[in-house]
Give the backbone structure.
Amino acid sequence: MLFGPFRFGPLSVTTPLNPEGFFGLAVTLLLLTQMTTNPPMSKWNRSSAVLAALGVTVISLIALRRALGIYFLSDDFILVRIGQGWTAAAFWYTITHGGGDGFFRPLGYVAFALNARFGGSNPFLWHVSSLAIHSANAVLVLFMARRLGASAFAAGFAGALFAVHGIHPEAAVWIAGRFDLVATFFLLCGLLLLTKTSEGGHIATHVIVLHVTALTCFGVAALSKESAFIFPLLVIGYTLAKRRPLRSTAPYFLLAAVLFAYRWSLFGGIGGYIDPATGRPTALSLGFGSTIKAVAVRLWTSLYFPLNWSTDPSLPLALLAVAYLAALVWLALRANPSRLVFPVAAGILVSVIPVLSLLAGSPTLAGSRVLYLPSVWFAILLALAVDGAPGRVRYATAAVILLFQVAALQHNLGFWEAASAQVKAACATGAPTLPAAIDGVPALANGRPECIEIARKESSQP
């Protein structure tokens, strides 16, 4: 980043995706080899929890405030039109038919319909909704980290890290990423409710109510986006970590089976994207080598170094990256995180199971919305590592990590602003000719007629 791109004879390194991935994997493995016993969790009163939640919300809104000025992009135009024309009949059709894109997300479309009621075709109001959900998710990450044994400081760090992580523009800025935001929200709500069942003092009826509510949250999440189908696996991981009987996980697997069977009946198969070369679903076309590379390298590239390499990072960002590298190395060598770091790391891997076929990685971060849920567990992983670091240096380490991610996020948002301006100008001409993507940002792969229609309505308004 300081001196590149590098060229060593015939070898050219224009974007260091593989070195970044190997480095991130090494840091993660080092943390897993240095686990220690779980420290006693300090008390956290209600006022402290509220202040922490407000702090994470403010950080989230400040870090992503530039999103409020971004225009609609590609699929956004179609989704806004669907939301505006939503009816009870449309809802029933969505519930009883698979989508033409190979996905079944009926409750995700309900979120668009609700947004359209007050947002109309105003991109500002649509982005306000997205930022509100993303900020709420960051607060839920804070509480999830706390429930998994992180200290108050580390839990706040986890929520803040998730809020500002550089991988998030595609999910939190692109309106089409709303599916990920909503599914993650209900998934985290369900998991937090589940953790309440392990507390002592609850009567049987209360525990049943918590389980039923958690099951409902899982159902809503799975009907918002299929990535939430990993919920039962996360439940079983938490159950094993807490050494509780596995029979309590059975209802979650049963609901997953029912929902998946219904989805299968609609599509006559697994659904999803189709590989044009084979005509089979991409989820069933995974190669062994490509899968290993995606999980062992490119996953960690995107989580540790979420940078759009369409243009070289600025010198300040490169200098921050040097400090960030040093902070991660120090953390990997000196931290002794609690044993819960292992199930949290497993949570990252479990969360990528539904999106393995989309995990090839890209120097432009195209498709990075699929890592929105895995980034939850990544933020908690580093939080537990910070908790296990010695002395006051851990506070400086946490600050450097957050600063780098904020800088990476701002670097990436610049591409979204530039692409948005081009799309808005092109739609206003009435004959948009932009490419499908600009520097990895969705431009006009879809939604050309809808973008012209919305632009005409805007121009006709006083």
